[in-house]
Amino acid sequence: MSERLPKILVVDDEPNNLRVYERILAPLNLDIVKAGSGLKALAVAHKHDFFLILMDVQMPGMDGFETASLILDHPKTSHIPVIFITAFARDETFEFKGYMNGAVDYLVKPINDEILKSKAGVFLELYKERLRLDKAFKTKKKAEEELKVHKENLEEIVKARTQELQHSIEHLLTTQDKLVKVEKMASLGRLVSGVAHELNTPIGICVTAASFLEEETCRISEHLQDESLSAEDLTSFCESSIQGSEMLLSNLSRATNLIKKFKLVAVDVSTEELSNLNVIAHIDEIIIEILPALDLTHHQITIEGDKGIVVETYPETLKQVLKELLLNSITHAFEEDIKGHVMIKVEKVDERVRLTFRDDGCGIEADTLAMVFEPFFTTRRGSGASGLGLYIVFNLATHVLKGEVICNSTLGKGTEVIITFPIEHSY
C-alpha cells in the first residue's frame, strides 16, 4: 500500500488563484484539496487531516476570518495552522484581527512563489514530525501495555514457580529427614549386628570349651565314685582341663579387648581432662610408649612439622587416634616381613592443627576407600581385624577433638589420613 500524501486545504473563491496555488505547491508532492467558499471549507475541514490551511480573507458570504474562527473553535480541527492570504496591504489593525481569529501568518497578493512554498514546507515538516511523534508515542504506549501484561504474567509465573520450588524444598527436606532416620536405623542395625558377630565367635568358643570341661569333669567324677579311676584317665583329664582353660582365657581376653573397642565407639570422654600439650612432643611420647606393644621395630617412623605448636585437647584421645592409625597400617598397609615407612606431619593452618598420617604401603582401592570409616568394614576379617579402627579414629577426631577427617589413597603407593582440629578446644 502506497503512503498517503499530506493534505493541504486551499480556500479561495477565484478558480485562477486555486490553480496558481496548485502550481506553486506541486514540487512539495502534496494532496491539495480546494474549496471555493467558507462553507465548503468548513465541510471539507472535518473530513480530512490537513497539515495547513491557506485561507483567502476576502470572500463573498463568509469571509476568511469567520471561516478560520469556526474551524479553529471545533475540537477536531483546532490544531490546524491557518495562513491568511489577502490582497490588501498589511496594516496593524488588519493583522491583529487575523491573529485574533487564529492565524499563524499572513501572505499578501500577488503571491511570491518561493515564500509560499517555503512557508508551506516548514509546516509540512512540522506535520511530519508530529506524525513521527504520534507513532513513537503509540509504539511506546503499546510497548508499555505489552510490558505491563508481560510483567503481570511474569509475576504469576514467578509466584507459581516459587510455590513449586517451595513444595519441592519441603518435599526434599521431608525425604531427607526420612533418609537420615532410615540411615541412622541402618547404621544402628549394622553396629548391633557387627557387635553380635564379633562377640559371637570368642563367646561361642568359650561355651564349647566350658561344655567340654563339664563333660570331662562329670566323666572323672563317675570313675571316682565307682572307684574305677585310672592314672591314665586322670592324666587325660588334666591335659584336657589345661587346654580348655587356655582356650577359655584366650577367648575371654579376646572378648574383653573387643568390648574395650566397642566402648571407644561410644566416645565417652567424661573421665578425661583437657590439657595443653605440645603436639610433636606428645606424639614422640606416644610412639615410644606403644612401639614395643605394636611390634613396629622393623618399620621406620618419621615425625616432622612445627615443634612449637601447643594445643588444648584430650591427650588420651589423641594417643588412641594415633594407635589406631598405626594398627591400621600394620594390619592392612604392609605385607609380612616388609619394612614400611610411616610419616607423621604436624602443621598449623590458621587457628587449626593439621595432622597428616601417611604410609607407603599397598594403598586402598577406590571402591573400598569410600567405606573405610564404616563400622565393622574390613578386608582382613579372617586375620583378626574387627573393622573398627578407622571408625574409632573418625568418631574420636570429629566428636572429641572437634575436627575433620579425610582419607586419600593410591593403589600401590600408600594411604594418607588427614585430621584437622582446632588449637583451642570448643565445647
From TrEMBL:
Annotated Histidine kinase domain residues: 194-425
The enzyme's E.C. designation: 2.7.13.3
Positions of post-translational 4-aspartylphosphate modification: 56
Keywords: Coiled coil, Kinase, Phosphoprotein, Transferase
Keyword Phosphoprotein assigned: yes
SMART domains in the cross-refs: HATPase_c, REC
Coiled-coil annotated spans: 133-160
Residue ranges occupied by any Response regulatory domain in the UniProt entry: 7-124
Gene Ontology molecular function terms on file: phosphorelay sensor kinase activity
Keyword flag Cell membrane: no
Xref: InterPro entries: CheY-like_superfamily (IPR011006), HATPase_C_sf (IPR036890), HATPase_dom (IPR003594), His_kinase_dom (IPR005467), HisK_dim/P_dom (IPR003661), HisK_dim/P_sf (IPR036097), Sig_transdc_His_kin-like_C (IPR004358), Sig_transdc_resp-reg_receiver (IPR001789)
Catalytic activity: ATP + protein L-histidine = ADP + protein N-phospho-L-histidine
Gene3D superfamilies per UniProt: 1.10.287.130, 3.40.50.2300, Histidine kinase-like ATPase, C-terminal domain
SUPFAM superfamilies for this protein: ATPase domain of HSP90 chaperone/DNA topoisomerase II/histidine kinase, CheY-like, Homodimeric domain of signal transducing histidine kinase
PROSITE patterns associated with the record: HIS_KIN (PS50109), RESPONSE_REGULATORY (PS50110)
PANTHER family on file: HYBRID SIGNAL TRANSDUCTION HISTIDINE KINASE C, TWO-COMPONENT HISTIDINE KINASE
Full protein name: histidine kinase
